[in-house]
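Case study 2.
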Amino acid sequence: MADNTWPLIDRWWPQREDWSRFKYGSFLLSLFLVLGALPYGLINRFSAWRGTSTLAVDLPIDFDLPFVPWMVVPYYSFYLYFPWAAWMGASDRHRKNGLVFFQRLIASAWVAFIIFLIFPVEIELRSQAYGAEGLFGMMMSALHEADAPYNAWPSIHVLLSILVVFFVRFVEIENGTWTNLRSIVAWISCALLVASTALIKQHYVFDGISGIALAMGLWYGWIRPALN
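Prediction:
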């Protein structure tokens, strides 16, 4: 598999292999921010402006689950996954894999974006997200202000966080540094993030399930086979 499937990168940044680890990691992270995070925000606002909901994916459990304010912390931890993946993918040994992974991570996000546009779903759970105080309350308010209740399924939080953990696991197994303790910490942290999407009333349970299914399919069927 080629180390770069986007020819424009070779044309614009031909000397990238000579960069420091920090610069290369910043490059990977910048690619994701411009081509992944920015389109997400634009699509979210477009869906809110359109105000259309095409499917009913809610289940009785969505309304029975409690609102757990402290779970907003693992929800916010999502934003640490991308610097983590960029740093791992910027090491001298794994730069080719790091670039391929970030290219396919962005493409995976776009798979979700297409679903958001074709099958928009409004998340009607926020009325249950009340009672948070102090720091948790501030974090919930900031989240609601920044993210309109659309872009429901598959949960982008679930999809991308699982792919990042898979990639970090791949790199560390190659390096011989993936231990049982690291595995337990990484997967418990990721599981809390997945659970937080429903427990702070930001997503339906179906959104998480579909995010897990898509992550598994993309990793084992498309991303993992492309890594050298």
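The radius of gyration is 18 Å.
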